[in-house]
Amino acid sequence: MQIQIVKSKIHRVKVTGADLNYIGSITIDETLMDAANLIEGEKVYIVNINNGERFETYAIKGAKNSGEITLNGPAARRVQKDDIIIIMSYAIMDFEEAKTFKPWLVFPNEKDNSLT
Questions:
Q1: Is 74 a known ligand-binding residue?
Q2: 18 assigned to a ligand binding site
Q3: Which residues are catalytically annotated?
Q4: 84, 86, 58: which is closest to 72 by C-alpha?
Q5: Which residues contact 77 (CB under 8 A, 6 or more apart)?
Q6: How far apart are CA 27 and CA 87, in angstroms?
Q7: For residues 48-68, b (16+ Cβ closer than 10 Å) or e, as one string?
Q8: Cα–Cα nearest to 32, from 3, 52, 56, 59
Q9: Is 27 marked as binding a ligand?
Q10: Per-residue pLDDT tens for 22-46?
Q11: Which residues form the active site (predicted)?
């Protein structure tokens, strides 16, 4: 049997922008993506702490150490600059493997989205 479990999580990060006219996705600082073991194009789930919105999109790399978290395209309507969100991805794996799997959990500084 296989199950889906959380693989990566960037917990409580601040939205720095929303670009309705972009094709779609979420731009994430490359440093945060690396720390959370996310790759460009990976499907991610977004939970907006401020308004309770939940939606999915895909990740694209932002400039390294920029702190950028920008929602693009239709997702831009679900957030506002300075909202706090959680970014998660999931993996499908064997049930027994999932019992010992440890996800990548990242807790950035909410003021500037840095890892310090």
A1: yes
A2: no
A3: 25, 58
A4: 58
A5: 18, 20
A6: 11
A7: beeeeeebebbbbbbeeebbb
A8: 59
A9: no
A10: 887 999 999 999 999 999 999 999 9
A11: 25, 58
